[in-house]
Amino acid sequence: MDFFIGLSVLGFWFFVAINQDFAMNPAQAPAQQFQDSLLRVPTITERMGVSRSYWWKGVKEGRFPAGIKLSTRVTVWRASEIDSLIANFGK
């Protein structure tokens, strides 16, 4: 019985030691973690200053990146792709 208690305590500290690296506060988190959030059409059109129909026409024509289909009615885009699109939009 003492063996199993010692083993479980050792396992607990091992778990804590491994997960300590992942438990950083948001100020220390890498910027990449927040750049790849997923955006839907209303957010994208607001950021770019374009209409919804203009956005979908651009996606259909290949001027804008294709989205990621989450379901039949939900499409999202990576924020990093949209940010680079906005940066290169006027060039």
Descriptive overview:
- The protein is of the alpha+beta class and 91 residues long.
- Helix content is 56%, strand content 12%.
- It has five helices and three strands; from the N terminus they run ααβααββα.
- It has helices spanning 2-19, 31-35, 41-48, 52-61, 79-88; strands at 38-39, 68-71, 74-78.
- A three-stranded antiparallel sheet has the order 1-3-2.
- The longest helix has 18 residues, at 2-19.
- The chain is globular, with a radius of gyration of 22 Å.
- It starts with a helix and ends with a helix.
Outline the fold blueprint.
Blueprint: H1 2-19, H2 31-35, E1 38-39, H3 41-48, H4 52-61, E2 68-71, E3 74-78, H5 79-88
Antiparallel strand pairs: 1-3, 2-3
Between the first and last Cα atoms, what is the distance in angstroms? Answer: 71 Å
Radius of gyration: 22 Å
The ordered H/E elements are HHEHHEEH
The assigned structural class equals alpha+beta
What's the count of strands?
Answer: 3
How much helical structure, as a percent, in the residues? 55-70%
Q: How many distinct helices? A: 5
Largest sheet: 3 strands, antiparallel
- Low-pLDDT stretches are 13-18
Average pLDDT reading: 78
- Percent of residues in beta strands? 5-15%
Trace the largest sheet across and list its strands: 1-3-2
Shape: globular
Write a brief structural summary.
With 91 residues, the chain is of the alpha+beta class.
